[in-house]
Amino acid sequence: MTRHLSSIAFKATVEKIIRNRNEESEAILELISGIIGDRSFIMGKVFNAVANIAEIDIDLLCSELFEDYKWELVIDLSKAKTKLQAFIMIYANSNNSISTASGMEKSRFSRLQNGELQELYADEVYGLAKAFGLKPSQLFNYFYGDGERPVVGL
């Protein structure tokens, strides 16, 4: 079962980073608290917004917050036995293998994919990015910013 990023842990890490910069931090911390609100867990959209407002590198923030997150590559081209297999590997993964590789609960992944649920948690965006060999910032920027669709498997 996935353990989502708590608002308390997220706020504490962001506050530490901001205060370490020796900036005037109270106004930005108040703004960030308003964005986070009273949620227990951090959604991907909130994670992205806070990182952008606080001007924190998403990849560095992810590596600090998700260092214990379990994931595996969905596409490991080193396991391909032929060029054909390597070529089609990115298209031949089941939903179960993707949810398992990204560390996401299978039922939640299915509900997100069919539109029953709309929002990914921040750790789920991170897990998907890592499972597909992407930088987390690429997926956060694609889902919540103006980033291009990341190319997987190249």
Automatic annotation (TrEMBL):
It comes from the Bacteria. Residues 98-142 form the HTH cro/C1-type domain. InterPro entries: Cro/C1-type_HTH. This is HTH cro/C1-type domain-containing protein. The lineage of its organism: Bacteria, Pseudomonadati, Bacteroidota, Sphingobacteriia, Sphingobacteriales.
